[in-house]
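Minutes, project check-in
Item: structure for the 314-residue chain
Input as provided by the requester:
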Amino acid sequence: MASSPKILVTATSFMKSASLKTELELRFPDSKIHYLDLRLPEQLLIFNDPSFTQNLDAWLVGGEPVTAYGIDRMPNLKAIAKYGVGVDNIDFAACASRGVRVIHEPGVNSLAVAEHSLGMIIGLCRNINQNAKKLSAGVWNKDGGRGLSGMKVGIIGLGHVGSKLAPLLKMLGAEIAYAEIVPKPELEIAIGIQRLAYDDLLSWAELLSFHVPLTDQTRKMFGDRELSLTNKGVFLINTARGGIFDEETLKKGLKSGQIAGVALDVFENEPLHDKELAESERLLGTPHTAGNSLQAVEAMGRAAIRGLAHTFSN
C-alpha cells in the first residue's frame, strides 16, 4: 500500500488533541490529512461531495456511524482506524464486502473505564452525588450511604474492563461474582471470585456493574424480566454501552424503589434528552467520559496511528 495515504479524520476527541494531530502528521509527513467535524452542517456537505471523498485511502473515526452509504462514497478506501474501543458503530459487513480493513485495539482505554466505574460505584453507594447537590442547595445532609465492605457485587463481563475492576472492588472488601459466556478460571483463582449464571447473579447481587460490548445478544439485556429477578434496592452501573439497558425499565425501577440508584456513563441516545431520567435524584450520570481520561485519549489516538502506520507500510 502507498506510504502517503490521503487520510480523513472525523473523530472529534482526536481532533481536539494537538499532540495527536501532530503525531499523525509527523508519521505521515507527505500525506494529505483532512479534519472534518460531521456535526457541523457545512463540513457534512464536504463529506458528501464525491470530488472530496473519491481519493481517500484511510478514515480515522470515533463514534460516528460508519455505514455502507459513507463507505460507498470512498471507492479507494483501504482502511478504517477506530479511535476508541467500541465498534458497534461500524458496519463490518459493508467493510468486508468492499475489502476495507478495520483497525482497532480492544482494551486500550480499559483502565480508565475501570477507574471511572469504581468512582461511580463509590459515588452512588456513599451518596456523594446527592450530598454534593444538597450541600450546594444549603442542605446539610449527613447520610453517608453504604460502604463496599461485605457488599455483594456482580460484574457482567469479565473482559478488559471487568477484570481490572474486580480486584479493585475486592481490595475494598466487596464479595465478587461474575457472569460471562466464557469461563475465566485463571481470573477466578487470581482474584478470588466465582462465576454464576446471569439470572443467578441478578438474584444474588446487591450491586450490578455491566461491562459487555453492544451486540444483538446484549442489546437490552437488562429489562423488565431482569429487574424482576433483582433484590429490592439494587444498585446498577453501566459504563459499557447505552443500549444494554432498557431505560424505560430503569425509570420504572427508580420510581418503585426496586432500584436504589443507577450510575450511567452511556445512554440509548446520546446526548441524553430524556428529562425524566436526567432529573432523577438517584441517577449519577456522566456524558460518556469513562474512557476519556487524558492518558486514555492519548493511548486511543496512538493506537489508531499505529494501526494506520502498520497498514500503509506493508
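Outcome recorded: The chain has 15 helices and twelve strands.
No further action items on this chain.
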